[in-house]
Amino acid sequence: MEIEEKKVGEVLVVLPREKRIDASVSTGFKGRMVDWINQGNKRIVLDLSEVDFIDSSGLGAIVSSLKTLGTDGDLVICGIRETVMGLFKLTRMNRVFQIFNDESEAIKALAR
Asked: Cα-atom radius of gyration of the chain, to the nearest Å?
């Protein structure tokens, strides 16, 4: 899975470059997220602006990343498309994750 990453101050911005986060890539995605968290990244923005589809295993990988952070960190989401937002609303994950319109809003929220 192709994932772009960049640091903006203390915030890590993660941008999956795939249209789908599904069973075929979720394990790799989760592994990369856990690696970044274990490297000390505690404030993470997950930019889903290029993702059209997430299945249950993809959603599980995102939730697992949040659990790995625990109370020491924050994982917020930005750039979520309407199709993916439907899944977040259906599973009520829109109540678990802070969701922002764009990267700058998300970074600003985590920089506090």
From this structure: 13
For residues 15-43, give the mean pLDDT.
97
Q: Which two structure tokens, joined as six digits, stand for 100?
A: 């922002």
pLDDT grade for 110, boundaries at 50, 70 and 90: very high
Q: Where are the domains of the chain?
A: 3-110
* Integer Cα distance of 82 and 9 in angstroms: 29
pTM greater than 0.85 (yes/no): yes
User: Which 3 state secondary structure label does DSSP give 73?
Assistant: coil
CATH class of 3-110: alpha beta
User: Which residues are within 8 A (CB) of 25 and not within 5 positions of it... i.e. 6 or more apart?
Assistant: 1, 18, 58
Residue 15 φ/ψ region, left for φ over 0, alpha for ψ in the -120 to 50 degree band, beta for the rest: beta
Q: What stretch of H or E contains 89?
A: helix 82-90
pLDDT of residue 7: 96
